[in-house]
Amino acid sequence: MQGGDRMGARTGKDYLRALADDREVYLDGERVDDVAAHPSLAGAARTLAGFYDYQHEHPDLLLATDPESGERVPVTHLVPRSASGLRRRHDALECISRYTLGLMGRSPDYVNVTLAGFAGRTDVWSRDGNDEGTANLLAYHRQTMLNDWSLTHAIVNVTVDRSIPETATGDGQIAVHKVADTSGGIVVRGARALATLAPFADELFVYPGYPLMEGDERYALVFAIPMSTPGLKFLCRDSYSAARGIADAPLSSRFDEQDAVVVLDNVEVPRERVFLDGKVDLYNRVMQRAGWTANIMQQTTIRAITKLQFAWELATRMTEIVNNTSPAATEMLGEIWTYLELTRSALTAAEAGAHEWGSGTWFCAEPPFAALRPTLPRWFPRVGEIIKLLGGHSLLTTPTSAEFADPALRPLIDRYYQGAKGVSAEERAAVFRLAWDFVGTGLAGRSELYERFYLGSAGRFLQVAQRTAVRGTDFGLLGSALTAGRAEDRA
Ligand SMILES: Cc1cc2nc3c(=O)[nH]c(=O)nc-3n(C[C@H](O)[C@H](O)[C@H](O)COP(=O)(O)OP(=O)(O)OC[C@H]3O[C@@H](n4cnc5c(N)ncnc54)[C@H](O)[C@@H]3O)c2cc1C
Question: Which of 219-223, 319-323, 476-480 has the lowest mean pLDDT?
Fold first, then answer.
């Protein structure tokens, strides 16, 4: 096992120990020696270590006893088998999302939930003779749960030319594909776009994104490998992490979860880590048939609700600090609250409609999520815009902690930066600085892009919503209206 010999839910110390391996992570043109010590990565590494400690601070909500091993494991690794199992997972996800204010989209619970959902659906994974792959997947799920690994995932191939199939770009050499079978496994090559959390993960999980076509067998691969596997390289985007204290960079000192392009340069994947190999139909089916959306969107929607709650509280306090009671401001605050309440209502509806999807596995109902999936990517940018409109110049008039500590400046700051009704300059600066880090800094820009795209673009999923609706819906209203018209003509 990686990272020491402890089994079950890890502590922050266990987590950081496991990070120190031979992973090939590049940032700003240099290979990163030690992720936990790198100035642009240390903040998020500390946050994630805190995440592992946090689960021991909330054991009733976040940990469960695995009946087979007797180990205490994270609830987010469990396969939901009933409405109450799903409810238990809801409570755990809510507690987790509060730890990052909903700002880390890919805290380890994201892939935990995905993997547990796949492991529950053996009826889907074992089709087309994929018995060995399914057995490997189940064993991997248990191994991940018992080691409490943190996983990053890569499902989308890099974009080269949108006018041709992605498997045809670069003479077929760019999308991730198998190049050889070996005695111990398979050799894979290619690149995948943006694996969030990559520098901080223990393992990379590669599973299906967009569908493949007949003849694409060598691209039909699902597997997982340790981050330090030879040939595996991660090229990080620019860092938006601020190497400053929490007072001056309240969010970007802590929550830059990073996104890296994954290059697989002749990587050998051991046979027992291959969950699907060469079966195009199954590759195309697993995401739809295994209920991926209905499963993962419980996690993502709970995180979104926490982030919207934070946004609403923050925006409300901003207006109180400058005593802005104008109808325009109140309207905009109400707009944020509306998005929050609609998101919460969709989750409630999805959980109320939860049912058994196959192999005794329970997921939410999909239609509320199908509506939310293209909608939230438009709401979040609007929430950011509202916070900018409410904040105006106050978002930038936020003295640093060094300026507050300067005895000559302090009396001036206290006088000229105060808020309405006796609000201190310190509180005003803290709230507006937090707001700017939420909507205006590099981290904020990346966060907006994340919300727009992390589950796929709004445009793509509005089309999916309409195709799904056309397939399954007949309200009978148009027919009845036309019949009424014809009846009147006849009369
Ligand atoms: C910050 C961030 C983090 C990410 N993290 C991860 C990660 O951890 N793991 C991972 O696997 N992926 C990750 N992704 C990638 C993510 O999965 C993709 O960005 C997402 O699937 C959308 O694909 P795309 O970027 O190719 O955009 P597309 O969905 O292709 O959309 C791009 C544009 O083209 C339009 N468009 C394209 N095709 C269609 C279509 N068929 N119908 C309608 N409109 C269309 C869209 O409207 C949009 O404007 C991340 C992305 C971002 C931005």
Answer: 476-480
Which of 156, 236, 262 most suits a substitution to test ligand 1, by most atoms within 8 Å of the C-beta? 156
Assigned CATH for 12-288: 2.40.110.10
How far apart are the CA of 455 and the centre of ligand 1, in A? 7
8: left (phi over 0), alpha (psi -120 to 50) or beta: left
Rg over CA atoms, the chain: 24
Beta strands in 114-169 (DSSP E): 151-154
Q: Which two tokens stand for residue 11?
A: 């502590």
Residue 1 confidence (pLDDT):
43
Quick check: 15 and 9 in contact, CB under 8 A?
no
Closest CA to 203 of 283, 157, 148: 148
Residue 5: per-residue pLDDT: 52
Pair type for strands 24-27 and 232-236: parallel
pLDDT score for 2: 45
For atom 52 of ligand 1, the residue with the nearest CA is 450
The domain spans of the chain are 12-288, 291-472
Please say whether the beta carbons of 333 and 316 come within 8 A: yes
| CA–CA distance, 204 with 400 (Å, rounded to integer) | 39
Tell me: the pLDDT tens digits for 377-405? 999 999 999 999 999 999 999 999 999 99
Give the CATH number of domain 291-472; options: 3.40.50.300, 3.40.50.620, 2.30.30.30, 1.20.140.10: 1.20.140.10
- Whether the CB of 464 sits within 6 Å of ligand 1: no
Convert the pLDDT of each residue in 417-446 to its tens digit. 999 999 999 999 999 999 999 999 999 999
Q: Model pTM greater than 0.90?
A: yes
The pair of three-digit structure tokens given for residue 73, joined into one six-digit string: 């494991």
Residue 4: the pLDDT is 45
Nearest alpha carbon, ligand 1 atom 16? 454
